[in-house]
Amino acid sequence: MTDDMLTEWMRAAAAQLGPDAVRICTGADDERDELAGRMLADGSLVALDQARYPGCSLHRSDPSDVARTEQRTFICSVSEADAGPSNNWMSPDRSLGEVWPLFSGCMNGRMMFVVPYLLGPEGSPHGRVGVEITDSPYVVLNLMRMTRVGRAALDRIAAGKSFVRGAHSVGTLDPAKRFICHFPERREVWNINSGYGGNALLPKKCHALRIATAQTRDEGWMAEHMAVIGLTCPDGATRWIAAAFPSSCGKTNLAMLEPALKKKGSRVETLGDDIAWLHVGGDGRLRAINPEAGMFGVLKDTSMGTNPNAMRMLDRDVIFTNAALAPDGSPWREGCGAPPPPGLVAWDGTPWSPEQGRKAAHPNARFTASATRCGTVGAAIDAPQGVPISAIVFGGRRAKAAPLVCQSFGWNHGVYVGATMVSETTSAANGPLGLPSALHRYEGNKT
What we know:
The chain is α/β, with parallel strands linked by helices.
């Protein structure tokens, strides 16, 4: 693919989406500040107290759009078998007739942002490129923290590298017409009528996990829902582990551990808190890179007691999504270690008091921050060949019927244990909480 193919795709998309104007994003600081200023002016962002939280703001999602919508998420592979046993399948022909027409004119009166992004370190042969088209400045601001936006991606496209195409529009936010469609053969994603980050930030779950799975099959590597952590012992030896946990089950807290033997020289280095791309290096070892450049973390129960390193990130250049707002201009959520102050405004913008019997912050409230804000992130995040993996941990959220920690007898048994584990459903996805994930399936997945 070349610049010409990018231009051709942009023109075709604009013809269908009908925006008033088109803007190719550079990822520059002044561009970020300009977009944030526009959102603050129109009320789609709320400024926090800039003396204590410089560069920080609060965004509120539509109440119908606060978590990943798995029942409206489809793999549109040519063969239903290629969608896998745990995904919803929709034929490409059906999506073309049912979903693509929803994009017709959906950006009338809006700007179409073209966001070229690189997943992975600059200069790494294991990085991949994508372009998201969106009418949401909130999405653009998040991608500027989560990925490497701009020239790093455009240079690769100009050099002939292929790119994943993503088309997104908040549309009307109609839940009944909300679709997240993945086309593995075409390396393409469509997202309509959603603005929540887990759905609308296409480079994250949509590209870095779902479409990347098709890339890995064809190219011989792996994309996994894993944190990657470096553990350095007092003797100075560092070993890297990959930890596979579902969303909202503790990956971020684990990735930023404060070691008990810190005073004796132990330390923890965070390569990534959510997604790992794995490959066999030239030395024959399994190695990992973090495709992301930022973090989209869960706010609930994040406190100095549970994750002091995350807390130290949250005082500058952060986007808070669906947190509660205190009268002094600070964000608040359950489990933060402080009682709710009087005059709190709930995540949906309404006044809140304890007598109402509801949560002030949404259970899936999030923070978006650049990885450079995390004190445990080191130079390894930019290492072109990644880091060598010595062990893999599988985990999840289980309230009963499972031991807190268990160890496999060996690699074969470890594969079996990892493949047969289930985790309770959490607030990261719409639906009831506390069910084994294997039982929480969309009933209408036959198309």
